[in-house]
Amino acid sequence: MSQDTSNEVDHLKRSIDWKQGLAISLGVPLLILPSLGYLPIYVSAAAILVWGLSVLQGFFQNTAYAELATTFPKASGLPGFAQHVFRTENYKGKYDKGKLIGGFSAWSYWFAWNPVLAIFSILVGGYLHGLFPALAATFSEYQLALLSGVVIFVGLSIVNWFGLKDGAILGYILAAVSLIPLAILTIAPFATGHVDVANITGNWLPTDWSWDLHHVLILFGIFAIAQWSACGWETAAIYAPEYKKPGKDVPKALFACGIVCFFSYVLVQAVVIGVLGVDGVMAEPISPLIPVAQAVFGQVGTVVTIIMLIAAMILIIQTAYLGSSRAMHSMSAEGNLPKVFGKTNQHGTPFVAMLVTAAFNMALITIGSIPAILAAAAIGYTCANGISLFAYVKAKKHPSFANLERPFKAPKGWTNVALVFGLFNLPFCVIGVVYLNSLEIGWSSTWLGFVVLAFYIPIWLFTQYELRRTAKAAPAPALTH
Length: 481
Prior knowledge:
Layout: H1 18-25, H2 39-43, H3 47-71, H4 77-86, H5 97-113, H6 115-131, H7 133-138, H8 141-160, H9 164-192, H10 197-201, H11 213-230, H12 246-283, H13 289-333, H14 351-365, H15 370-397, H16 414-440, H17 444-454, H18 456-473
Helix pairs in contact: 1-9, 1-12, 3-11, 3-12, 3-15, 3-16, 4-5, 4-15, 5-13, 5-15, 6-8, 6-13, 6-14, 6-15, 8-13, 8-14, 9-12, 9-13, 11-15, 11-16, 12-13, 13-14, 15-16, 15-17
């Protein structure tokens, strides 16, 4: 299929291999932190099973995305796939509805990843407030969250200004600082006997749990929240235009990150419940790893854990920062956002998109509520996954894509798998997370999510107007004889 060049933007550079893509994506195993104490509130120790099933869901979905990434090696992950597949080639009318659908999917994905920066800046501020009494005496948690956001966003912007390769180096450093201590903190309680299996087996589900419509809707909402964390390793595919050999690098980076996520999510939740019990987790829902560290390592372990978690949060913010900016660049390249968002510097970094992402998250930090921000982001993530999986089905069935080279192919019949999980996301998980929000924190996060998603429509319409105006103003090509 021919490429639409009506909205030419700067190109990303192919500079990384699968190991570097994995390093940047290794923030995803740490996305469990905001929900580590949240899921047990609703499903007790069955949260361990929810995490395991959610990572397996990621394997089903990301197998489809790996094929799309190698079929469309210039597309930036989920946002790029959906835009490329749904647009109508050589469309002559005023508004291409297929292009709007693909662009909306990319916008949903951008909004899903974006709040990671705000969520973990708030958490960093909270941990700093608890770790350093001098800071607590001078600044409130809210002020520390804002300061943390400014310092982290400026620092990451400077590091990533010089290209994705340098971002990968930072990923290696932060992965070592955060994942290794996290692994020790996960394994040590088993070795020292602090894990009481009865805390898990004796509290598998809440005593008032029943399989009525109310609890089924809660379960769909829980899976939507869990998916936002446990399936997020699809971000390894978003760097497809920057891999040296995308046909080989994308599947390797994806599935390596998925394996790390599976063991991390299942074991970390099992350790927290095994050591503290469900009641202990509910007593410390924001940071349950801290009392686990106290139980195993004492006060010194607590300080080390907080430092490790802060490093982990910066790694997560790095992953989200890069993914969000690439999503905006992709939308600009496809003519779904104004051309300015596709501007890159001499190192191939989409700096305008990064600046907008940082500014948007500074505004989100002012909200101050992690559950409200996360719930709104989960709405965007389920929309993005649902539409992207439907894009995979179309890419397999539509004649226009039949002859494209597919360096990596999902197993036979995967279109049915993608269709099932697409429907699981849209509408079931969306309905579930909206229902869960209404029970817990009212309608504020739901309205936040829908307003941000709906704001895309006027932006898209303006972009199409600008593209038509630019096309009319462009001089006609000279005739040759």
